[in-house]
Amino acid sequence: MLRLAPHVLELDWADVESRIKHFIKNYVEKAEADGIVLGLSGGIDSSTVAALSALAIGGNKVLGLIMPEKETYNQEDIEDAKNVAEKYGIKTKIIDITAIIETIQKTIPEFDPNEKISKGNIKARTRMICLYYYANKHNLIVCGSSDKSEAMMGYFTKWGDVAADIAPIMDLYKTQVRKLAQYVGLPQRVINKPATPALWPGQKAEDELGLKYETLDLILYGLEHFMEIDEIANQLGIDKAVVQKVSSRLERMEHKRRMPITIKLQYRTIGMDFKLPQSI
Amino acid sequence: MNITKMEKYADEARKQEAELIIFPELSLTGYTLKDKVYELAETIPGPSTEKIARIAKENNLYIIFGAPELSEKAQAILYNTAVLVGPEGYIGKYRKMHLPNHSVFEEKRYFRPGYKTGVYKTRLGRIGLIICYDIFFPEITRLIRLEGADFTVCISASPSTRRSFFEILTAARAIENTMFLAYVNLVGIEEGLQFWGGSRLIAPNGNVIAKAPYYEESLTLGEIDYNEIRASEISAQMLKDLRPEIFLKLKEKSVEF
Questions:
Q1: Residue B29: which domain range?
Q2: Domain that holds residue A177
Q3: In a structure prediction context, what are the per-residue pLDDT tens digits for chain A, which is 280 residues long?
Q4: Looking at residue B206, what DSSP letter applies?
């Protein structure tokens, strides 16, 4: 019987680091790109992918965009982002996206400043636009920072912060990213910072998900390994309803992880049985 | 096709006085082909086999490689095949019998399973061919040993999450059959799958006598002295002691499972 305890999330961090770096380097080479562009928020995920990207292809080939906006502005996060960039020799550009967001808000008929989610998503999608501008202009690969916990919970903005060409830490749970970051040697401040997509002031991932990542990651690990909900709940000593909620959310969020779904009308259909290899 | 690269390695192998060069599973085309396999599959023998056979002749080498095979009797029925050519030309092939269709694998989607083993008598000895997932089935290596092979060649395209299994099973197959076993694995990253290399030549006592690096392309040489088999057979007598009636029971129980 699979035992759900923190040690199951332990990996050979040296091996993980090496393989992720190899993956990043290999992709940039195959894509014949001139480097990587990524969003730097000062948070654990983006700091970790920034460090790994720099270690893989050289900091001089990595461009970090720091994209604050008025409502969620946090000087410490910006300093953290700059410190990480400096440590790994990464170039940065600070783009205050407030004006872009405000223009969008003013232009959209019936914009509702009180509806948090639709308003917050504009920020994530605006950052995506900036990243892809630089990617297109300078032949760079957009490196995403979504992790496995977020990907499984659909805790990201559709076509927003998840949009990227590669997602090197998407197969690591949040608590594993923290361990990897520790191993790689990222600043402790960054490692300890509570996770947030910063779409509105005071937003905290663990508040929204209703669980600490230490617990959530073990639930997700159990679900990943086909464990029964009852068994997960028993082993972790938590309410079955909590586990059920996570399981339901995992399934409900599948639409966020795919190309738009269509109705099959012909011989081979994109997203279904039109299966071509991805050469890069 | 990877023929140019194979030719380069054959040339290098010849310079190092090798007599046999082994390439991984589906090395002719690459492993992650999905629907493109229909365009790339060829009959075996066929055009690419001819080209590789010519390379074998020019370099006075035996060559084993993997390729998607198109049935001669159909238009889109394919096999995952290991091919053996030598200085004398095309020698034989083996169609993979156990096709993985779980986790990241979808070989049953594209390939028909084989139904015959491939054991070939050559100037270099009696060589039996298996492919990748076949290593998880002791019965097939046992069978090719009983058909007279002294040397199993397992070509493979194994992604790194399976590495620890292969490192154990390849040694197990060599030991339990008191035979030499060469395991030749793909390297590179395809669709987020990292193929781990780590090719090796294993002696009848399970010792790894030659080993390629992990994760990098390389040419690694190993030497076989078939006389070693004699000493192993005397000290570990499985071929004498195996019980045929158990095989009958295995058949019965695997059908009614």
A1: 3-256
A2: 6-200
A3: 789 999 999 999 999 999 999 999 999 999 999 999 999 999 999 999 999 999 999 999 999 999 999 999 999 999 999 999 999 999 999 999 999 999 999 999 999 999 999 999 999 999 999 999 999 999 999 999 999 999 999 999 999 999 999 999 999 999 999 999 999 999 999 999 989 888 999 888 888 889 999 999 999 999 999 999 999 999 999 999 999 999 999 999 999 999 999 999 999 999 999 999 998 7
A4: S
CATH number of the domain to which B69 belongs: 3.60.110.10
* pTM (predicted TM-score): 0.94
Structure tokens at B186: 């793909």
**Which of B30, B35, B189 has its CB closest to that of A26?**
B189
Residue in this structure with the two tokens 């779409």, named with its chain if needed: A199
Contact B132, B158 (CB under 8 A): yes
Whether A242 maps to a domain, the answer reads no
Domain total for chain B?
1
Which residues 181-210 of B have a C-beta within 8 angstroms of A? 188-192, 194
Q: What ipTM was assigned to the predicted interfaces of this complex?
A: 0.90
When CB atoms are compared, the residue of B32, B34, B189 closest to A23 is: B189
Q: Residue B225 burial by CB count (10 A; 0-12/13-18/19+): exposed, middle or buried?
A: exposed
